[in-house]
């Protein structure tokens, strides 16, 4: 019989600002993934074309959903673009 142990974890409550920042980071990451898939599609061999089409569709659907969630929360899309430029200038890794 195998015993499973659970490590004690400190529970930290997230604020609404933390949740908004995480949503923005996911939007930025998804935009980068979509751009990456589009660039790779342009140079893909015949075997990988279907793969990149799938990646483009999946990332676009994810981005549409995340932007919809941001609008529901009342986040400004221009604010998200400004943060994206700030991340690029500082060479910070997005989640």
Rg (CA only)? 18 Å
Note poorly predicted spans.
none
Could you estimate the helical fraction of the residues in percent?
A: 55-70%
Overall average residue pLDDT: 81
Query: How many DSSP H or I helices?
Result: 3
Please state the oligomeric state of the protein chains shown.
Answer: single chain
Number of strands: 0
Task: Name the overall outline.
Answer: flat
The sequence of SSEs as H and E is HHH
- Residues in β-strands, percent: under 5%
Computed structural class: mainly alpha
Task: State the separation between the terminal residues, measured CA to CA.
Answer: 38 Å
Please describe the structure with a list of short key phrases separated by commas or semicolons.
95 residues, mainly alpha, 69% helix
List the helices and strands and how they pair.
Elements (H helix, E strand, L loop, with lengths): L15 H27 L6 H25 L3 H14 L5
Helix pairs in contact: 1-2, 1-3
